[in-house]
Amino acid sequence: MQFDDDAGLDTSEVQDMRGSRIPGGGATIGGGIVGLVILVVGLVLGIGPGQLGLSSGGEDPAPAASSAGEVQQSCRTGRDANTREDCRIVAVVNSVQDYWSEELGRRRGAYAEAPTVFFSGRWETACGTATSAVGPFYCPGDRKVYLDLDFFDELRTKFGASGGPFAQAYVVAHEYGHHVQDLTGVLGRSQDGRTGADSASVRTELQADCYAGVWARHATTAPDESTGRPLITSLTDADIRDGLDAAAAVGDDRIQERFQGRVDPETWTHGSAEQRQQWFDRGFRTGDMAQCDTFR
What we know:
Strand order of the largest sheet: 2-5-9-8
Number of strands: 10
């Protein structure tokens, strides 16, 4: 995945809170390996951690070395996105939001931008207190995506994904898929609290995977607001394979087998590895969000 070296990055779409102390108090996320299986799969289903009933007391983790606001200083152009991980995520956020703004407008809808918050350790959100163990998630309460960049290392080391820049892009695009669901009213209608292979929760996650694929299809053609040219200049077959591999790595069956030693479809919340790959691929092949009706 390559970015236009000369394109400007819009850092206003990312709030860099890494190394900052959590504002106020609140419970931390716990639950041991059960909490890990339910939450850190990343791509949580759009509801915040405090709503999952997995809070427990604990001390604030020590903050990382302060880097708050670093992306505003260091992430200026596509050249920076080609050399720095945090700048790469800024560029992906820009690309994803540019695409959905244009696409929803074309469909006579309205797109409201949602910032991504980089945090480390622990952070307070409108959906509860997030810790690094939660993994990336979208909070409909404040319409923000929350991301600890350390998750991308865990995606490889804990979940067995091959990694790569586009694996990261897939994670971000999935979370913005939840934002699109929120704007179109799907997210609010799908949170019935049930689990299982045919649950609304799984269908919601698979649709977000499909939306990530739709964005990927148009990523090299959608014009960037600052230049009129695509911010992403190339996506290779290897990039798409990395995205599909990441989708499989966070499938419920893969996670349950890895961490519990058994697979229980009745407790699924995100879908199997095969389903997640299938719906991302469907979005990528068709490039049409209308083909992402996982509820039908």
